[in-house]
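Supplementary notes for students who missed Thursday's class. We covered one full example, reproduced here. Read the sequence, then the structure, then the short commentary at the end.
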Amino acid sequence: MEPITLNEIVKWTDGYCVSKNDSIVFDNISTDSRACVHGCLFIALKGKNFDGHDFVSDAVKSGAKAVVVEKKLPVDTAQIIVPDTLKALGDIAKHYRRKFWCPVIGITGSDGKTTTKEMCAQFLSSRFNVCKNQGNFNNEIGLPLSIMTMTKSTEVGIFELGMNGYGQLDYLGQVLQPDIVIVTSIGYAHLGFFKNRKDLARTKAEVLQHTRPDGHAFINGDTNFFDVFNEKLLFRPVYAGLNPSNDFQGIIAEYQGDQFTFKIKQWQHINFKIKSWNGAIAYPSLFSILIADYFGVPRNLLPKLIYDFVLISGRGQVKDVADLKIFDESYNANPGSMSFALQYFAKQKAKRKIAVIGCMAELGKWSKFYHKKIAALVRKLNFDAVFTIGDDAEIISLSSSTINRHFENIEDMAEYVCNFVRPGDAILVKGSRVNKLEIVVQKLVGKQ
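Structure (token representation):
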């Protein structure tokens, strides 16, 4: 983070300052009193289960030079008083971002945001100094804090933007003001908060109206919401996907179980080997290749860059333990990503194929409908055993004609699965975060 003055914070937040020293300069911002360092600015956020104002004195003891609060507190340090500290955090990040002229990429979508962000960052880091958000720090708190890690040496910013309701991407778009937007997909994640997928698409498209006039948008054209995206842009986006109608078409040419050959229709003489069992990574790969080419990364370097990419934990990693193959998709799930994972897992070679499936959360009134669709797919794929946990996931196990069982408790499930598996088995573990399926993976890994 580059230094920011107290006067800049006051101006950016339109706050009222209580201070005896106007020359204070900050080189760090924190919303966690436990992470405060000497000289930082502490912002007292309020949440459902906490109030940062209760920890202001702790932040000051840790070295905070000033605090942003919603009311004057009895602490001996500079205070900037604002109506809403969360909005103040966004205002600070929005103005801080304006200090930099480097190109900034915003990535959103129902599936593959984090993988696309990490892959784009790896490709561009071969030539540029890249700043990105860590993990999935992509909401109204995480994104502003991530923006604040940009420095004068940053040459490209790559930031993931998440949402689960109306207006959130409109707000995050205002804060980030991206030069380039990538929309990885319009799927089913958080569908329960919207009327239908088109309504969800309109909400995703809100970020596009904050793209700079001379900017660019790269959008998944396989999701067919062209009218929604085009009405938000002053320029024509580039559509990318696996269907022939796209401007930039990827082709899965040869699937080999643990990797596949990937081609770009417009590039006749380049083959990419992607180390993944799940063909769904074709979309993050396609967008990352497109971005790297746009920024001038030599095309002859791209095959090695994509082959060297390491999948993120919980998002497709394969763990070989005690003659078991564990396909770890435990981080999250929605109907689109679940369908992809199940179909590609069915292509694997193993003595037995076992599907450990958690419910797909935040589908609202659509939940039973999409769990029934997944149940029909599971029945068709005919796995050797199907184990489920979570609301509506029982629909999947009950419909299976093979060995099946539904669990109410994740610890019981983990213990049962560990006792059930035997050498030569392949186990897919996939579900939404609420299921905590990483516990099953950890237990299986601990068998060695």
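Commentary. Residues 330 and 430 are 5 Å apart (CA to CA). The longest helix spans residues 367-381. If anything here is unclear, bring it to office hours.
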